[in-house]
Write a structure and sequence with these properties.
By secondary structure, the protein is mainly alpha-helical. It contains four helices and no strands.
Length: 76
């Protein structure tokens, strides 16, 4: 995780780690399961998720943290 990020809670940090782990799995060996979880979480296609995960900036941060919030609230 980027040191510039300052998360409010340890739960947010854990959710970020989970999303990053799922993304790693989605691009490597457990593609189908991890991609399906991410697609459900973000409500986007795998192609869109992959493109957004490979970029940075304020728009990306808001999108990414929306997924963190949904994961924490189990609202996906």
């Amino acid at each position: 995780m980027n040191d510039v990020w300052k998360l409010e809670t340890s739960e947010e940090e854990e959710a970020c780690e989970t999303i990053n782990f799922l993304y790693q799995q989605a691009t490597e060996n457990r593609r189908v399961y991890a991609r399906n979880v991410l697609k459900r979480l973000y409500g986007d296609s795998w192609k869109t998720i992959k493109k957004r995960m490979e970029t940075e900036g304020s728009v990306w941060y808001v999108w990414y943290m929306d997924g963190v919030s949904k994961l924490l609230n189990k609202n996906y």
